[in-house]
């Protein structure tokens, strides 16, 4: 008998590849064939990392900061992280209450891997970031998906949360501003969710605040442990420099939370990747301690792009889009396109069909909403210059107008 040497870990075999990266791979294939694709699928700012941050990284190399660091991060960066949480989020923490990881994704994965056992459940409001359910499954848990549609502005309600909680519930993941919808929870909405959670002391909360600084219309950002300090002892508040400072490739995420959890996450990271890049940590330190003009300027640009994108999408036959309150995504309903036939002869049965038809026939890449747990929608990242966004929307409009 031939041994089955290609046998995979069953959890990995059951996991789905990232839908976002599958579309990105298709974009690369089309471009290799000579197609001029406008990609609206990647979740990263199109701006350069601020110069003072880049300069700090270069100086770090010159100064010899090129060796291993402590697993939890260098103390100077952890002090800056703690200061950020105190200054911007009203959380009473010190540097010992922080952990630095290789990107925000590792923060989330470490937390789940350190705490989930077979049978544990994680409440994941949908629409969700594509990686949440897959990470839960890979860590041995079960994602309890709670659909939050347009009637609730794509936000979790107290009633839906209360109904989802059971004795097996281990975590609630709360993302505000949201990827993919841009939804932002207000103080009153967070208070209402907190009231439910206070009645269920066995539930941990993961507050994914990575889009914190991309919030529009002069709204104030609030995180759950700030609104309800009684939940701080079981809340992991995570953030990073990727979105706010256009540092996606630097791979620095960080968190604060209860000491027992951070210790477990550090233990796991020590056997997994060890500390984050020494150069990236020095760059992140410069970002957190340096001037914040970049945040204000980029936010103003994204708000203008949001207004442009929403107006153009709502002027397109078959598409409807509410104005997102944050992040840099438009989550547009494509229900009006379902059942129709594209100029190339493709019948649009699903939002995934819509996304692939737009890529193949209009040379515009978007991600289907069902990959985020809710269809029929498409997620459009407006992290491109105005000229490219207008060109993409013109192509989408022409495609939709030509449907049979």
Helices and strands, in order, run as HHEHHEHEHEHEHEHEEHHHEHEEEH
Oligomer: single chain
Q: What's the main sheet like?
A: 7 strands, mixed
How many helices? The count is 14
Radius of gyration: 21 Å
Strand order of the main beta sheet, please? Answer: 2-8-7-6-5-3-4
CATH architecture of the largest domain: 3-Layer(aba) Sandwich
Tally of strands: 12
Calculate the terminal CA-CA distance, rounded to whole Å: 55 Å
Structural class: alpha/beta
CATH superfamily of the largest domain: Type I PLP-dependent aspartate aminotransferase-like (Major domain)
Dominant shape: globular
| Percent of residues in beta strands | 5-15%
Task: Supply the CATH class of the largest domain.
Answer: Alpha Beta
On the 0 to 100 scale, the average pLDDT is 96
Keywords:
single chain, 404 residues, alpha/beta, Aspartate Aminotransferase, domain 1, Aspartate Aminotransferase, domain 2, 2 domains, 7-stranded mixed sheet, 3-stranded antiparallel sheet, 12 strands
Can you put this structure into words, describing what you see?
The protein is built from 14 helices and twelve strands. The chain has helices spanning 10-14, 19-32, 51-62, 75-89, 104-115, 131-138, 158-164, 187-198, 224-227, 259-272, 278-289, 293-314, 351-362, 386-401, and strands spanning 38-39, 98-101, 121-126, 142-147, 169-175, 204-208, 235-240, 253-256, 329-333, 364-365, 367-368, 377-381. It is globular and about 60 Å long. Strands 2-8-7-6-5-3-4 form a seven-stranded mixed β-sheet, sandwiched between helices. The chain is an alpha/beta fold. The model has no long low-confidence stretch (mean pLDDT 96). The relative contact order is 0.16. Helix 5 (104-115) packs parallel to helix 6 and helix 5 (104-115) packs across helix 10 (259-272). It has two domains: 10-48 and 294-401, Aspartate Aminotransferase, domain 1, CATH 3.90.1150; 51-289, Type I PLP-dependent aspartate aminotransferase-like (Major domain) (Aspartate Aminotransferase, domain 2, 3-Layer(aba) Sandwich), CATH 3.40.640.10.
